[in-house]
Specification:
The structure is a single chain. Residues 1-33 have low confidence and may be disordered. 6% of the residues lie in helices and 60% in strands. It has a single domain (11-448), classed as Porin (Beta Barrel), CATH 2.40.160. The strands form three sheets. The chain has an 18-stranded antiparallel β-barrel. It is mostly beta strands. The longest helix has 13 residues, at 11-23.
Amino acid sequence: MNKITMTAGVFALSAASLQAAATMDVAPGSQQATKWWSVSATLRGFYDDNYTTSPKDIKRDSFGLEISPSASINLIRDQTSFGLSYVYSYRYYDDRHHLDIPSGDESHQVNAKLSHAFTPRFKLDVSDSFAVAQEPELIAGGVPVQSSFLRSEGDNIRNFGNISFSAGITENLTAVLSYANEYYDYDEEGHGQVLNTRSALLDRLEHRITLDIRQVVLPKTVAVAGYQFERIDYTAKGSQSPIGFPIAPGVLATYSPDERDSYAHYFYIGVDQGITPTLNGSLRVGAQYTKFDNLDVVRQLNPGVDDSQWSPYVDANITWLYMAQCYAQLGVRHQRAQTDVAFIGVTPNLDAESTSVYGSLNHRFWGNFVASLIAQYQHSSYEDSPGVGSTSDDYFMAGVNLTYEINKFVAVEAGYNFDRLDSELASNETGWNRSYTRNRVYIGVRGTY
């Protein structure tokens, strides 16, 4: 999915909150600020009424148990800081012990960040985020616009890497040059004429080069102008993982995943604004030009396919640190994005135009209680298809977590997560509508040292 590099830094709060909802985790956070290393472990019991993210007629529910140890280090020196964390999770589903599939899921998350200031004007930031997971939120990595809302069985890999160099040209003028990539490798691969596997639809490598020019125009106002080039290469082999749809009895319309390859140019302007000492906002508005440069079979299946698109780009958020250890954030993102939707009717679909609105709240009260709320809504629209017209997906998720810190080492917690996908599309594999509802509740204990 497409991401412009954020320069205000406030998006990190939202990313962390989305990650917490995905893992059903909100850390007590009492130890990490006082020493350079931290270890913890969480034990939870849960109930998931639709762990397969399936339509109601075929969904499965289960009680289960989750264990999740983690460790992190944070080193801060005069000019250099380094952070590294690892989270392991194993979830056992009671409903699956009699099925011909593993009874549990394993996920791994590794995050690393290095920052070095050569001088007050020259700074280098390097980061990487790696995950092996099944849940769509974990695979998305906390970004506002998701490419899939469905669970993916197996050991699915994603990796986000970023390197950014900031150079102060003058006291008030700064240039930021960055390179980022995203890698996705799904476990479900096709064999022969197996169509529309997760690998065929979503395996890809994304590259982005971004240049931002930042000018301080007022003490609390920074004007921004930027450009980004993006390249997306789908990596599944078409002969092994074709994308297709039966157009007549015994007749398949198929095309190779690499026909979805594209490049894009982003042009945008914006502002980072300090409204008060605790209230900050960021805005980016511009245009995105996307070109599909590898269409062959798709042109035969759909002679009227539009291989280039101009679309608006918007990225805005506001963050309020209203009390000690309390914050709220609200944001919106609009852009073209990758998708797991392969066909609209019998017409190939290449991507989606998506709008995502997200928010989070973290509040400490009565000393030892911490409440966390998170919500996200995403509307994804697809190209019109002959005989079908315009179609869309609407996804909503919300989560609440309540933690009571018994002391600085032990905390108990409980929470609830809700997911709802309203889709106008049917699954190519099953013919079922994609829509589903999912409820998850959990209670557990966490130890931190």
